[in-house]
Amino acid sequence: MEVATRAKVKDRNDIFFEAALGRRASLVNLMKAGIVSEETVSALEHGVLTEEDIFTSISQYLVGEQPIAGIIVEATGQKFGILECIQQGILKRGTGLELLEAQAAIGSIIEPHSGNRYSVADAMKLRLIDDTQKDTLERAQRAITGYRDPVTGNTLSLFEAMSKGYVTESRGIRLLEAQVATGGIVDPKASHRVPLSVAYQRGILSKKMFGKLTDSSDDTKGFFDPNTNENLTYLELMSRCRTESETGLIFLPLLEKKKKPRSSSSRLDSSLKKKKRRSTQRSRKVVIVDPDSGAEMTVKEAYQKGLIDRATAKQLMQQEGEWTEETELVREVETVETSSSTSSGHQASSMSMSSVEQIDDVFDKSRMSAADLSARLLQLSNAHLGPIAAIIDVEKQETISIAEALKRRLVDGTSAQRLLEAQAATGGIVNPMDPMRLLSINEALAIGLIDRVTSRRLANAEKAFRGFSDRRTNQMLSLGEALKKGLCYYEAGTRLLEVQYITGGLVVPPDGKRISLDTAVALGCVDQRMADRLSDIQRYAKSVVDLKTNLLISYPDALEKSVVDKYTGLRCLEALPRLNRSVKMAGGITIQASSAYTSLASSLASSRAESPIGSLRSSRRGSFDEDSFSGSFLNTPDRPYINRSPRK
């Protein structure tokens, strides 16, 4: 009965997807824009994919990504909607209105506590906006529905309305930039978003505007950062926001305002005076004279310049007062200097005596046993076989987990899921703080390395290593065998087989033994056709974003670009802040990259025009996301397994 039902396939001309504000986008229009490929439609017609699967993979172009939903106060952790911030004086009215306009132009006003989205009219009823904002926001909302030309009666896009003077240029650029940062330019006639390149081809953007949106300048910096008083693009402002792990909502943190810092000398003098008022232990002041310049300096300054050694410095500081008191003093001074220098972008002050003391303690406590050292050396020697385990924050020179990189907005959600899938499929989730122990999904969830939503998405990826249970035979199957029986999606399963192959061989559960392709064929884990595909690395899908250029690359390319951390032995990807990424194109042209421009950069840099894999967010097609699967597509005891043919 189920098979008969699935055999009835709707005509592609009759398939529509829900878009922003209750609008509907046709499958045919999405194909014309290159968002959905002919191959994807064929998979839909053969029952390999459902409409829900396709919706999930292209949601970026239908409803857009999350805009800035509200403000979170750094000191208290309280979340506020934009209107609440205006009413309480947290944001100026103009700044708040710009953020609300961006929400409206992207598709809906967001209630920051529940994450629900509303039209401007409904938001007004729920008091998410006030009477003074309604008209402005309704005009901004027409960036989604289109502007009616009073002369011709035609529906105009946002840029077309700007060109005819119905929208001011400054407001129009601000709203266009917000659309780009959250998924693409809205084509109101097609009821969906399109990449910048497609918008330019369709005439929705002019060449001049295309250039402005791909190379941000002062003209596109229409949003205000209340923390730094800077004018920023919407993407730049989003890069300073935080993503809430449970809801996926994005909040702009409001930092505590501090008084203007004084000079270093005045801060030091003030701290010394305060300390003297609190203590009478000091009986003398030791002064060191620089033999070259004759300049007088404190013990601390002499130690920092290398004129005296640590033991001498400690002895002289004890003569000035108690060692514990002096340590407290240095800590107090350095705390002030560090906070101010960090905010100004300069390096913090040099190491104090107390810092040296702390480092000595760290070295004492971190001495490894012979067994730990042996395991670490083994890990270093085998690093070339492992998956990408962590991210190196180039700006901060820190090795961090994938989850932490996601919080810092160094990696996008789809790439993070691909990297974590690869870890789960080859042994377990990696904790950079304890690199010698691979964690199960539940263990990683327990220590906060991943969130609950991610754990659900990785559940099937973990089975690629631990084995799939065949409920009919009660046997434990390898990933290749599970693919043959239709226990997992073909594309996602193939992607994980690729990861296993290039990191040491296909996995045989339950002990995780690695085998070659020839052995896998002989054992019946994969057929010769799959073995040939896995051995052709050039055919691997581009599913990960290069964290230095924002171009889409394959997992083997990512491994090629990775580095091995000499301390942990982990294979890591180096990541630049999104706004600092760029790629050199043919002819010497440099494109400044950003998460929103990945599709454009990829299409310019590569002849590959496959979609939705060819775009950043829409490469979710076939990923292990149980939440996005429709009921009829799940393998359950009362539904027969569906055999799925390869994409190529």
What does this structure look like?
- The chain has 648 residues and is of the alpha+beta class.
- The chain has three domains: 64-254, Plakin repeat (beta-hairpin-alpha-hairpin repeat), CATH 3.90.1290; 264-338, no CATH class; 373-628, beta-hairpin-alpha-hairpin repeat (Alpha-Beta Complex).
- Helices cover 43% and strands 14% of the residues.
- The protein has 30 helices and 30 strands.
- Strand 3 and strand 4 form a beta hairpin.
- Helix 15 packs antiparallel against helix 18 and helix 27 (517-523) runs antiparallel to helix 28 (528-535).
- The longest helix has 22 residues, at 323-344.
- The radius of gyration is 29 Å and the shape is flat.
- Residues 1-7, 259-284, 321-384 and 594-648 have low confidence and may be disordered.
